[in-house]
Write a structure and sequence with these properties.
The protein is α/β, with parallel strands linked by helices. The protein has one domain: Rossmann fold. The chain is 32% helix and 19% strand. Strands 1, 2, 3, 4, 5, 6, 7, 8 and 9 form a 9-stranded mixed sheet that branches. Residues 1-15 and 21-35 have low confidence and may be disordered. O-methyltransferase that catalyzes the 2 O-methylation steps in the ubiquinone biosynthetic pathway. Pathway: Cofactor biosynthesis; ubiquinone biosynthesis. Belongs to the methyltransferase superfamily. UbiG/COQ3 family. InterPro entries: SAM-dependent_MTases_sf (IPR029063), UbiG_MeTrfase (IPR010233).
Length: 279
Amino acid sequence: MALTRKNIPETQAFTASGGENSAKDVTDATNSPASGFSIDEAEVARFSALAAKWWDVKGEFAPLHKFNPTRVRFIRDTCLMHFSHLDGDDIHPFDHMRLLDVGCGGGLLSEPMRRMGFEVTGLDASEKNIGTAKAHATQDGLDIRYLAQTVEQLAASGEPLFDVVLCMEVIEHVADPREFLKTCASLVKPGGLMFVATLNRTTKSFALGIVAAEYVLRWVPQGTHDWNKFLKPSEIEDFLSETDLTPDPAVGVSYNPILDQWALSNDIAVNYMMVARYF
């Protein structure tokens, strides 16, 4: 059963993406034609510089900290419905299932996924981000496998496939989104899921995701996003048509400034998430 956009209350939308693709102090990865061709080196350098700030709830990644509970619930609920044999009342319903968090940054999603039982591999092209993620996981007593690699490197290594692959707030920061998504999809095992979260390329997303978020409210540093790299749901669907995965309709995520919280929404004009299934 898929989560749909029906009967989800609409609220005001703002960008939540703080650049969780992060990226690398791109050394060997970007020099190898087979290992990191989707990387955008400018994005890599910019987000690596913020590596020490991932867990500062009032810092540059504050929007992601507020956004995180909504996307964690969405992932959990969708997985429980898809993998119907699982017990939703179990505190660790996803024990022994493999999950890949592509562009894991400092581990904001990897850690709650591990707490729910997933065997988590957190992947980021930035060695500095991986260092932050490892240190925080150790501090919290979590055994998470973190790799300072590109997704192309991982795919070329013969890595076993994953039950769930996360591409959350990543694709709008890569140089070749089509090839990036195809590589991510190649790591999903039959019967598995891939989650994609990004921003739509609309007039509303320019007004709220760029002007408001970066220049008026200053939620994220100026230059965090390039509106021209935002992707329409139809473009994600087109990319996925070249893979074995079938996408569900996009689900919007909007911010309610009165409640100061994010929620699923019918409005996909700014932030949205998609699920793709390997039937």
